[in-house]
Amino acid sequence: MAVAAGHHSHWSSRVGFLLAAVGSAVGLGNFWRFPYEAGQNGGGAFVIVYLACILLIAMPLVLAELSIGRRGGLNAVDSVKKVAKDEGRSPAWSIFGWTGMIAAFMVLTFYSVIGGWVISYVISAAQGTFATATPAAVAKQFEDLLSDPWQLTLYHAAFMALTGFIVSRGLQRGIEPAVEILMPSLALMMLGLVIFAAVVGDFAGAIEFLFYADFSKITPQVILAAIGQAFFSVGVGAAIMLTYGSYLNKDVNLPQSAVVISLADTGIAILAGLLIFPIVFQFGLEPGQGPGLVFVTLPVAFGQMPFGGVVSFVFFLLLLVAAITSSISLLEIFVAWVEENLDISRRTAAIAGSSTAWVIGLGSVLSFNLWAEWQPLGFIPLLEGKNWFDTFDYIASNILLPLGGMLIAIFTGWIMSKSSVLEETGMQENALFRLWFFLIRFAAPIAIGAVFLVNLT
Fold it and tell me: How far apart are CA 69 and CA 97, in angstroms?
């Protein structure tokens, strides 16, 4: 069926777009994944490499995605197809629109389950559960949550329903009003918590841990982890910026937007570290705790600090806001494609998308209890030992996202004409453009290709 271009909306303002784009990047990757990745990979050494990856790989790719999306003016898949045809190239290049959309949808199915954990913790914090919680009680609460498929299913449903409702209302009545409330709220809560952590926590220890780099700790594994975190955090390769870019008017400065999105996301990740690690070090907890850092380690600290009940509620509310601003972007990619290609209403597309993601996400729910030992694709050596949750996470994060990112770089650097790239980015052919073009043509594909090959071995 022909694409129904008339359905395609536009942002009402540049501010609305930037808040939505930053919100899509700022999510559980900043508050849940970044701190434990830094904790497990050498602190400052990891942060230095991560910042380099943002500047040299993620930021150039954000600009490339936005440019292709705006030039195509359609959903992620059809934008790439249109640009390829206009350049006299094969429409098969739309493959990276497909890989991005599929990866985003796969991430949404398990992201919503983790978002459900956050809802559970917001409720617990509101009830004062963490105000006097002992380490044993906190650990047991997390274990009890994961072992209860009915409770996980309920919270997973609540998170997905909220995501679907916002997306169903469209760009100007749903996503923009939501982020215009949620993102300033996130910023205020975060600044307040960082100041609180600086007062009651070991702020000097956190500064040293995050910014003192022991370069002997920079190993190939640390570099790969940093590149992976940069991709996961900014959302490169997931077709988010392709989709959000397609809603942009021609007067929006794309290079400036790419810089704002990338630096805002990175700044919030660093602030998350300055929020979490002072508390971790003050109370003698383990920074390399892993994924349980936010859900097990921090609640223990909340139970030992002054105003711990209030602080825990604000923290998990902050986490929920960050999760929602990302999940709506993940669902929007699918909804935009369905709305334009199947010619059905946005509301119907949002209900279908969120319902399907919820059903598939039940596999991730059961991965923590009844299906914990089931390996759906364990016959494939690469996926051996991985349950449903781990399999979806690995395929999306380690295969589809890097593949999509590499294809975006190749398409922008080698398939689009330089004149088209200059026209769409609005850049002049000066030293800055030549640096960006070099990064897109050579540095990004090589770096991503290295990660891709390592992930497949």
Answer: 10
Q: Rounded CA gap, 216 and 119, in Å?
A: 40
Domain that holds residue 29: 5-455
Query: 12: burial class by Cβ within 10 Å (0-12, 13-18, 19+)?
Result: middle
From first to last of the 457 residues of the chain, give the pLDDT tens digit: 445 445 678 999 999 999 999 999 888 878 877 887 888 888 888 999 899 999 999 999 999 999 999 999 999 999 999 999 999 999 999 999 999 999 999 999 999 999 999 999 999 999 988 887 788 888 899 999 999 999 999 999 999 999 999 999 999 999 999 999 999 999 999 999 999 999 989 999 999 989 988 888 888 878 877 887 887 778 788 999 999 999 999 999 999 999 999 999 999 989 988 988 898 888 887 776 666 778 887 888 888 888 888 989 999 999 999 999 999 999 999 999 999 999 899 999 999 999 999 999 999 999 999 999 999 999 999 899 999 999 999 898 888 988 999 999 999 999 999 999 999 999 999 999 999 999 999 999 998 888 777 777 6
Structural domains in the chain (count): 1
**Assessment of whether the complete model's pTM goes beyond 0.85:** yes
CATH of residue 395's domain is 1.10.4160
CA dihedral angle for residue 407, residue 413, residue 414, residue 415, rounded to 10 degrees: 70
Measure Cα distances from 170 to 34, 164, 183, 356 in Å: 31, 10, 18, 19
Task: Please tell me the distance from the alpha carbon of residue 457 to that of residue 447, in angstroms, as a whole number.
Answer: 16
